[in-house]
Amino acid sequence: MRIALLSPRGPLYRHKTGIFKKSLRYMPLTLPTLAALIPPEYAGGLRLIDEGIEDIPMHLDADLIGISAITGSSARAYELADHYRRQGKCVVLGGVHPTLLPDEAARHADSVVVGYAEDNWPLLLHDFHQGKLQSRYRQQPGMILGGRPLPRRDLLPDGNFTVGHTLEATRGCIHKCNFCVVPTAWGRPLQHPVGEVIQDIKNMRARRLIFMDLNLIADKDYAKELFRALIPLKVTWGGLVTTQIAWDDELLDLAAQSGCKGLLIGFESLTPEALNECKKGFNLLKEYQEVIARVHERKIAIMGTFVFGFDNDGVESFANTVDFVMENKIELPRYAVLTPFPSTPLHQRLDAEGRLLHKDWSLYDGQHVVFQPSLMTPGELQRGIEWTWKKTYSYTGIARRLWRGNLFWTALTANLGYRFYAHRLHQFYNCREPLLAA
Ligand code: SF4
User: Fold this and answer.
1) pTM for the whole thing?
2) Which domains does the chain have, with CATH numbers?
3) 94: Cβ below 6 Å to ligand 1?
């Protein structure tokens, strides 16, 4: 069977015309994971194409085409799916967006995979081979991650990614932030057995790793077991956690001892009202400085993420956030526009309030304003976030945050990459009004 697996481009990340000339991102795991799940008897003519790093041919020599889509890439996924179906190809859609909106995806596909594909993707291929393809495959309750084949990273060209050694130990999250697709799309958290994670790292011969898990410390006992097992490997790693890591000294010490050099932490907002609004009450604003200090004490750099556009956010929120990241020497701040992804509680509320500007999913990417904010105009929010990026990654801003900080040289390289990003972002906005005063 000839199978093609496609990851369509989004507005910002695309081959040649994207924000970077070549993909400056971590190797995605979705296509390699799907490739590994294909039973050997069907894997003879397999091809993986990530449109972030190469063009997708308009004529594919494939019997079955699988397309994985997030919301920002769903319009392109549908465009490709419609194109190949007109050529008589069988098209299967899956991933987070088809999981959130399976009926919408079904209008563009012969079959839709809803939820994780571990059990259903091999079943779907078997059905297709038998001529009995079903229109929908839903993840069954009780699915586990243990005992699965390791991702086929060798099928994507690793030279196009800043970090080729990506992996996952867990999926899902225990929290229910109202803007996040994770609780809506994926449900309860799942874990790979620690022994399998360690074997995956050994097989990769990796020295530098990125855990793609959405919250690596969701289960602290599991995280401690994992970090202990990492220590003998002498790797360095980065991953995503919540502020809660700061309040468990053993966990934080083990992270540092196991080679953690960078943590992405979602601070989201500097106002308690916004943290309550998004159901992130476990983030306590008065504790932020101590969280940062505790992580920095272990020589771990922080990629701090902040979201703008909550109902209590006025135009002052941009300058306040820049001041905060400067004073606390956050090595890699990142900013996003509050985005009501489909089917999330936030989307349902804003839709009911009549505040969605449109449902052009290609602009639901965390950098475009797609709803009417409460205390700003959409233009003020769009210009404000652009100003925040540029102010943070001005040469003065970089120097203020990094000077005498953790991992100066590593952070400097990443900061220069983000400076490039910050100064090109406006080319991809749908709003071209002047910036706030610099
Ligand atoms: S903690 Fe992070 S991953 Fe978990 S629900 Fe909140 S935003 Fe999503």
Assistant:
1) 0.91
2) 2-138 (3.40.50), 165-428 (3.80.30.20)
3) no
